[in-house]
Amino acid sequence: MERLDIGIAGAGPAGLAAALFLARAGHKVELIERFAQPSPVGSGLLMQPTGLTVLDALGLSPAIHALGNRIDRLHGADASSGRTVLDVRYDALAGGRYGLAVHRAALFSTLNDAVVAEGIPVRTGITLAKAETRQSRTALHDPDGEIVGDYDLVIDATGARSQLAAASVVAPGVKELPWGAFWATLDCDGIAHDARALTQRYDAAKVMIGVLPVGRARAGEGRKVAFFWSLKTADADAVRKAGLDRWKAGIAGYWPEAVPFLDQIADWDQLTLARYAHRTTLPPHADGIAFIGDSAHSTSPQLGQGANMALLDAAALAHALRTSGSLEEALAAYAAARRSHVRLFQLLSYVFTPFYQSDSRSIAWLRDRLVATVAKIPPAPQILAAIVSGTLTDPFSRTGLTECRWPDGVLREA
């Protein structure tokens, strides 16, 4: 395909990765960011073999591994009985797969440093309200109606609250999910914890407390964990009003080993309330815009696929542009490449969420007694590992990627 003039809205992981793929393919690319200074949002996340493969394709595997923390298993137990109700191990699958927990600042800096090194321009402090396509060019408008850019293709990577998606002809319906979580990033050096696991404690499905060791936000800093506690977002104000000490005492009652982490929280400002929604933009393109990441699809984070899906979107779109004869063909190829994988994992997230975030005691009872038992019987361990890895169906071949494995932290091709 001929060289395109491409504007990318949003300098998060999806937008930064897309900018790298497309600039390296020879397209003229610029990023547009609404904040005065691009920066990460959120605490920690778990990079799966899918997202790690994309970062490796961009040559960023050494950088992200230097900051992240290897995760070998996801383990959850009932807070009262200690009974294991979740135990997913990456090594249930052959090939040396594992997860890499990272601070969002580490993922952002890894991608952003590469964008800066490539000399890709980033325009900041610009809010986008809508896009308008005329004569095969797409113009981006600010809230005052002024044109801030005119392109052959616009890529929307502005996230789940995207104004561009909401104003498009494929605007998705949004189902706000009742459950969210308080998140905090805390120090972990010198504190006893499982450094190779995402560890969780439950009270039925109404309480979920978790600790994810995420490595370092920046080189030279101490190691961190992402600490989270799920709740109904409608209850958040009442929890705050009841007081921080009461909230901390409740968690300590469920999980006494978490007290050294709780002792670091002195103010509600240290906690961020994450809200979740289920939405799908179908198809993920319209009128000269391609939607990627949360702009295209979002759901509960129960399976930890969000950033990984966004990186796969960026790779798939770049591959479609590289292998198609026209922009229209490329957008259709991008949609086809991601359709089945996105739909499958949105469905799985939707199905699994009530087992860990809901008011249903019967679902939690089923999880604790039946699911935990069945999960030990082959091929269930392999299936669960494939779900968590993001590879229950092949996400790579239609995105132009070859999966890589990282046994013992050493990269090799599968």
UniProtKB/TrEMBL annotation:
Secretion signal span: none
Coiled-coil parts of chain: none
Domain (FAD-binding): residue spans on this chain: 4-342
Cofactor: FAD
InterPro entries: FAD-bd, FAD-dep_Monooxygenase_BioMet, FAD/NAD-bd_sf
UniProt xrefs under Gene3D superfamilies: FAD/NAD(P)-binding domain
GO molecular function ontology, one term from the record: FAD binding
Keyword Oxidoreductase annotated: yes
UniProt keywords, alphabetically: FAD, Flavoprotein, Monooxygenase, Oxidoreductase
Xref: Pfam families: FAD_binding_3 (PF01494)
Keyword Secreted on entry: no
Top-level taxon in the UniProt lineage: Bacteria
Protein name, per record: 2-polyprenyl-6-methoxyphenol hydroxylase-like FAD-dependent oxidoreductase
Organism: Shinella fusca
